[in-house]
Each structure stands twice: as C-alpha cells, then as structure tokens.
Amino acid sequence: MNSALKELLDLLDLEQIELDIFRGRSPEERIQRVFGGQVAAQALVAAGRTVPADRMVHSLHAYFIRPGDPAVPIVYNVERVRDGRSFTTRRVVAIQHGKAIFTMSASFHIDEPGVAHQARPMPDVPAPESLPTFQQRMFETFGDDEAWREWTSKPRPVDFRYVSALPWEAQRDPSLISTENNAWFRYDAELPDDPLLHVVLAAYASDFTLVDTVLLAHGLAWGSANISGASLDHAMWFHRPFRADDWMLYAQESPWSGGARGLARGEMYTASGQLAVSVVQECLIRVG
C-alpha cells in the first residue's frame, strides 16, 4: 500500500466528537482548497456511521457550496431525516469557519430482490494492464518540465489508466478533442471487506475526471492561466456491490456546456461488464 492510499484511509477514519457529529482533516499539502471527492467521501462515512449495517447506500445528492480550507478540520453534522422499514435517509452538512461548505443527502436501503436489467453493455476498450499509468502519460506530455514533473511524481491513492486523451494532450492536438472520456481505475492494495468503504472510495475517485471530461470537449486543460473551474453539484447511484481494489471502467461523457457551466455524467463498470455506479455532475468552468 503506497503512502497516499494509507493517508486517504486515515483521512476517512473520522473522529466522532458528539452524537451524529464528526470531524475530518485534509492532507498536509500546499493546496488552495480541499478536493471535492474528499469532502463527499468523508460526508458519506459520517452518514454511514449512523445507519444500521444491513442498509447500504444506494444514492447521494450533494452540493459544493464554498471552497474547503485544507488548513483546518471539517465538522460533519448528520441529521437523521428518516428511519423507515426499508429505507434510511440522512442529511450531512460540512462546516468550516462557522459556515456550510458542502451539503449532502444520502439514502440507504436494505437488500431486496427485484427485477433487473442493464440497457447498455460496457464500452469495448483496451484492458487496463495494457495502458500506461497517469504519471507515464504526463511525463510523455511534459517531458522535463520541472513543475509538472514534481506534481505528477507524487504518489496517488488511486491508479487511473486513461483510455481517452488527457486534456493536455487534446489541448496540443485538436484531433483528440472528444465529448467522451474513458478511464480505468482501482486502489492498488488489498482493502478490507467493509462494503461502505468501497462505496466511499468510489465516491472519492468519481470527482477526479468529470470536470476534465468537459474540458476535453473543448481542447482546454488545467494549468492555462485563463482556465478556472470547480464542482458545483454531484449525484451518484450505487446499483450493485463492487470492490474498489478491482479494476473498474469509468465511462464518461459531457452532453452539454454553456453559461460558464458544464454537465458530465459517468458509468462505472466492473471488469466483468456489470454496471455498478452511475454519476452526474455539474461543474463551473470559466475561461478568460
């Protein structure tokens, strides 16, 4: 287990400071704001700790309200909205400096039998083992650029293998511009069998590449002086059990952008082709 994954698992082990009140921290890095996937994952941990173990999360709906300050802890207040016979609903508010920075509603459901179908098969893409790592792709793109090399050489908790072009590649070669973005990912260590942990880690990984999918549609990339952006809201539906330490294909597309906003949606498939998670996010993108 690399140091970045170990640190992430530590960050997800929230401190309970009162009934339904939890405290989380951020990595000790020089970053301007807290990564949105981290806040969503920690909020889901907080909600899950107030729910019976036989009820698994099946959906979450979240809003990113203010940038998170990585220098101070985040307090997560959980409201027990409803405890029904089959469903449990929780609302979580993440607070810093006395103000809400993030809100999330999450619904949990007991395991029930029912009709089942999957409309679309998993996209036919190369196997993850045949693809270079994210770091290798970035090194090929930026070569000896010292600033980029320092950033990309840092250990990452999740291993992403891109099938599609990176935004920086499409910025240099307009023929690579696309509204579709496919990437394999997994956490490269054997993880505990706790089902909530695997769902939480999927939520963390889900926020890495959705804004990139909107940028890819326009040949734009982070690092340009005139580009700024952030996640605005985030929704996920969890369809079946899965393991985040097995390869999953994250098939994403951006059907629309306009008015300084962009929409991206994604589907996470197990390596065997089963649809496990659906994701939709709206993001803010400003140019100029």
From TrEMBL:
<dbReference type="InterPro" id="IPR025652">
    <property type="entry name" value="TesB_C"/>
</dbReference>
<feature type="domain" description="Acyl-CoA thioesterase 2 C-terminal">
    <location>
        <begin position="177"/>
        <end position="282"/>
    </location>
</feature>
<dbReference type="InterPro" id="IPR003703">
    <property type="entry name" value="Acyl_CoA_thio"/>
</dbReference>
<dbReference type="InterPro" id="IPR049449">
    <property type="entry name" value="TesB_ACOT8-like_N"/>
</dbReference>
<dbReference type="InterPro" id="IPR029069">
    <property type="entry name" value="HotDog_dom_sf"/>
</dbReference>
<dbReference type="Pfam" id="PF13622">
    <property type="entry name" value="4HBT_3"/>
</dbReference>
<keyword id="KW-0378">Hydrolase</keyword>
<dbReference type="InterPro" id="IPR042171">
    <property type="entry name" value="Acyl-CoA_hotdog"/>
</dbReference>
<comment type="similarity">
    <text>Belongs to the C/M/P thioester hydrolase family.</text>
</comment>
<dbReference type="Pfam" id="PF02551">
    <property type="entry name" value="Acyl_CoA_thio"/>
</dbReference>
<feature type="domain" description="Acyl-CoA thioesterase-like N-terminal HotDog">
    <location>
        <begin position="31"/>
        <end position="109"/>
    </location>
</feature>
<protein>
    <submittedName>
        <fullName>Acyl-CoA thioesterase</fullName>
    </submittedName>
</protein>
